[in-house]
């Protein structure tokens, strides 16, 4: 004897119950639970979305944000959904995808900042990518795509920003059906070069502060070493050169190198120190910590005293304080970047919920909340002064 298929109304009631039970559900999950084809599920979802019972997300559906009270129950300072007293403390949890180029250096503190800001009320799904466009696109697609991805509500992304492929990636990110906030990156898209929302460190300010510090310590012949693979290097160089010109410093070293883990690093580091000796440089700013520590070690092997002969300032302050001597360093506000990006994204989602609840408002947009202006937040780094930049003797 075969089991009688449920009536469409019964099937849709079960579908709604499943979505309410889990907060959101994917087409593949609903197809399995209901015992019907994905085509049938999509047809049912289309009807339920049309009458406002459910809200479509990538690959599935969820209870509409206005029903969950996102706009009405949002914390004033963070934008994080707050529990509704009538619900016994339960809150429908948002899912945010986070794509970073590394989970080993710099980015762990950014991740921790976002995690701490979430306070357990927002689910973060982390994916490590690289500095390659294809890798970032693949990881983002896995988070928002139709093929088994979790169907996130929004994205925090640190994409490449240089070159035509990065520009294409920016256009793709801007066209996604979920809000996107960039971390430590800035991108503009479209024919009018409109910016994506972002939270980033003012790295030019940071290197400028470091340059003022070495000038105050009496150094006049100064240098900069940056990584040719880092997206931060351009801003660091811009700030350094601007302040050096303002203060009338002699920039006698301005070199790009491979990262320390590259096989050619030892030769390029030796070239940096050769250049310092040839030009009489007495102070270097080095991006990043790893390269700065290695340069100090090689300088000491040559008999160059740090800081008596050569002052060194690192940029990033991940491990600079553990060097011998401890290195003065510029410290970007990494945790604040993660926390600020999550807060900005949650406020964008709250704006989206408000727009969905009042679709007739001028400029309202059910995806992004177009009444809310694009925010580009810039945070200031700090100079942490240690032994490696003592005043000239």
From TrEMBL:
InterPro entries: DeoR_HTH, LacI/GalR-like_sensor, Peripla_BP_I, Tscrpt_reg_HTH_DeoR_CS, WH-like_DNA-bd_sf, WH_DNA-bd_sf. Keywords: DNA-binding, Transcription, Transcription regulation. Gene3D superfamilies: 3.40.50.2300, Winged helix-like DNA-binding domain superfamily/Winged helix DNA-binding domain. The keyword Membrane does not apply. Residues 68-89 are annotated as: Disordered. Residues 8-63 form the HTH deoR-type domain. This is Substrate-binding domain-containing protein. It comes from Promicromonospora alba. The lineage of its organism: Bacteria, Bacillati, Actinomycetota, Actinomycetes, Micrococcales.
């Amino acid at each position: 004897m075969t089991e009688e298929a449920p009536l469409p109304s019964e099937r849709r009631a079960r579908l709604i119950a499943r979505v309410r039970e889990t907060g959101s559900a994917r087409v593949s999950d609903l197809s399995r639970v209901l015992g019907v084809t994905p085509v049938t599920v999509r047809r049912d979802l289309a009807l339920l979305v049309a009458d406002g019972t459910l809200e479509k997300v990538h690959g599935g559906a969820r209870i509409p944000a206005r029903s969950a009270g996102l706009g009405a129950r949002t914390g004033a300072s963070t934008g994080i959904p707050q529990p509704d007293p009538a619900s016994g403390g339960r809150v429908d949890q948002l899912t945010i995808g986070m794509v970073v180029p590394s989970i080993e250096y710099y980015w762990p503190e950014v991740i921790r900042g976002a995690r701490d800001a979430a306070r357990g009320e927002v689910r973060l799904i982390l994916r490590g990518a690289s500095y390659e466009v294809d890798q970032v696109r693949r990881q983002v697609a896995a988070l928002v795509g139709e093929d088994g991805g979790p169907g996130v509500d929004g994205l925090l992304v640190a994409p490449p920003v240089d070159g035509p492929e990065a520009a294409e990636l920016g256009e793709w990110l801007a066209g996604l059906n979920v809000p996107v906030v960039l971390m430590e990156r800035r991108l503009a898209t479209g024919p009018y070069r409109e910016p994506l929302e972002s939270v980033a460190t003012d790295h030019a300010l940071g290197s400028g502060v470091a340059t003022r510090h070495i000038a105050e310590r009496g150094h006049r012949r100064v240098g900069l070493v940056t990584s040719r693979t880092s997206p931060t290097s351009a801003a660091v160089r811009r700030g350094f050169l601007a302040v050096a010109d303002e203060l009338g410093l002699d920039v006698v070293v301005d070199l790009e190198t491979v990262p320390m883990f590259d096989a050619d690093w030892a030769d390029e580091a030796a070239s940096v120190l050769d250049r310092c000796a040839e030009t009489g440089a007495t102070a270097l700013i080095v991006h990043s910590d790893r390269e700065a520590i290695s340069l100090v070690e090689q300088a000491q092997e040559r008999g160059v005293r740090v800081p008596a002969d050569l002052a060194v300032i690192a940029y990033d302050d991940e491990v600079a304080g553990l060097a011998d001597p401890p290195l003065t360093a510029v410290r970007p506000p990494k945790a604040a970047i993660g926390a600020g990006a999550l807060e900005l994204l949650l406020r964008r989602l709250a704006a989206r919920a408000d727009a969905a609840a009042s679709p007739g408002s001028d400029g309202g947009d059910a995806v992004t909340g177009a009444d809310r202006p694009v925010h580009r937040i810039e945070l200031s780094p700090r100079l942490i002064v240690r032994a490696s930049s003592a005043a000239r003797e």
